[in-house]
Amino acid sequence: MSVQKEKQTVFDSKSKDLLQECIHCGFCLPACPTYTLNGNEADSPRGRLYLMDALSHGRLDTSESLVRHLDLCLVCRACETACPSGVEFGSLMEVVKEGLLPTREKRHPALTFLETSVTSHERLSGLMKVGRLYQKTGLHWLTTHTFLRHLVPAAMRSGNESLPTIPKKRFGKDKTQLFSARNEKRGTVALFTGCVMDHLFPHVHEATVRILTWNGFDVIVPGKQSCCGALHAHSGDIATADRLSNEQLQLFGEFETDSIIVNSAGCGAQLKEYDRFASADDEALETATKVRDLTEFLASIELRPPEANLEMQIVYDDPCHLLHAQGISTEPREIISRIPGVTLLSLPESDQCCGSAGSYSLTESKMSKAILDRKMEHISAAGADAIITANPGCQIQLAWGVRGNGLNFEVLHIAELLDKSYRLNPDYAAL
Ligand code: SF4
Ligand code: SF4
Questions:
Q1: What is the CATH number of the domain that holds 41?
Q2: Which of 300, 335, 358 is the last residue of a domain?
Q3: Are 183 and 201 in a shared domain?
Q4: Which of 20, 36, 85 has most ligand 2 atoms within 8 Å of its beta carbon, as the pocket-test mutant?
Q5: Is residue 136 part of a domain?
Q6: Cβ contacts of residue 166 below 8 Å, gap of 6+?
Q7: With a 6 A CB cut-off, is 87 part of the ligand 2 pocket?
Q8: 18 lines ligand 2 (CB under 6 A)
Q9: Within a domain: residue 416?
Q10: 66 lines ligand 2 (CB under 6 A)
Q11: Distance between alpha carbon 102 and the CA centroid of its chain, in Å?
């Protein structure tokens, strides 16, 4: 992506202070997927912080090569988990990406396409219709399995190849839906359905509702939900991210609930961290305190035990925005451990990104694919029947990795795994 050469300061004073917290120890280097792959210090967290610091003090210009090193960052935040000094790398990257936005001569077309689509369910529904037709007529197969793939513009090729089978209907509706608790009522929760997740993974939302109602919760699914703004924050459009998060939190604030359940790690992190926006308002901040990842919520209640054996060997791959942004790692594993017959196998580097990272798989497809290939090597060697994750972007990316490597196992959201086990109970299956 090209940039105009001009000197500028993209950091405010708070961010400059945060930059000073780096003590250059290098503990973060082995945690960084880009540094792990290419060994380039400028593509490591410490190197990027050095570049940001030089940029913030005017020692370096926004040259094309500097921006490349920053763009190549997945913002997976694995470096935050590894850092003993508490450097808030994700926030710093948001600030620098926002600062760089006006200097970019052009944006990646896939990014513009995605960001424009996700803010409107009408637009998304229209796209899904076209996409279904594209898949039903076999055109999608032809452009992914034959020489016709070269006719797809290079910028859209990875998006085309990773496109999952598009379901007929999204889960969310314009009208608010209420699903009543089965068994003794224990509380009321609301479900965040989001944008892409709602259209591509409605079955995960359905499974989530079944699990929650089976466990005694009324589930409210507010109508007119939209995107949380995570994709926009990722690319530096902070104003839009702030507005979208605020709109969602205002909407959920209208309902009396104990918790707001999110089953997409990226959206959960975005909504929980709403307080990072300078213009955050009190009402939305209050609502944000109720946001819980599905696994976090299920681990906090006395989960009705699934009784039937699944007899599966699985690996769990941590979504970065669950592990590194929300600090959630034991909860999903605890839920998995309660499912009879399921053996959780060890997966090396399960704490490293799969290369999806929001829009990264579209804008930085070469590095994204290299990271995915490394992940698939580990997964293949583990000998599992299924990969479990908890984020739609990871599901799409991992499923692409499975197809691309001719492997034969499922990629499931953790809600689908738990639902599979519960469904072996005829009373649950009747829900
Ligand atoms: S956010 Fe991820 S890719 Fe970026 S520097 Fe940190 S560990 Fe590396
Ligand atoms: S671990 Fe933290 S303090 Fe050490 S080099 Fe990385 S960012 Fe800096």
A1: 1.10.1060.10
A2: 300
A3: yes
A4: 85
A5: yes
A6: 128, 131, 132, 135, 199, 200
A7: yes
A8: no
A9: yes
A10: no
A11: 26
Domain final position from 272, 300, 328: 300
Q: What is the model's pTM? A: 0.92
Instruction: Tell me the CA distances in angstroms from 144 to 163, 305, 333, 427, one per residue in order.
Output: 10, 42, 35, 42
124 occurs within a structural domain: yes
Which ligand sits nearest to residue 27's alpha carbon? 2
Q: Which of 231, 228, 233 is nearest to 247 (CA)?
A: 228
Candidate from 18, 71, 89 with most ligand 1 atoms within 8 A of CB, to mutate: 89
How many structural domains is the chain composed of? 4
Using CA positions, which residue lies closest to atom 7 of ligand 1? 32
Domain that holds residue 328: 312-427
Question: Distance between CA atoms of 126 and 103, rounded to whole angstroms?
Answer: 33
Q: Which residues line ligand 1 (CB under 6 A)?
A: 31-34, 45, 48, 73-79, 89
- Give the neighbor-by-neighbor strand order of the sheet with 312-316: 342-344, 312-316, 386-389, 410-413
Q: Please state, in angstroms and as integers, the Cα–Cα distance from residue 303 to each residue in 189, 306, 307, following that order.
A: 15, 9, 12
Token pair in block for residue 240:
């839009």
pLDDT in tens, 321-344: 999 999 999 999 999 999 999 999
pLDDT tens-digit profile of 107-155?
A: 787 788 888 889 999 999 999 999 999 999 999 999 999 999 999 988 8
Dig out the tokens for 379 from the structure: 């997964």
Residue 30 CB–ligand 2 contact under 6 Å: no
Residue 187, strand partner residues: 217
- The CB of 27 under 6 Å from ligand 2? The reply is yes
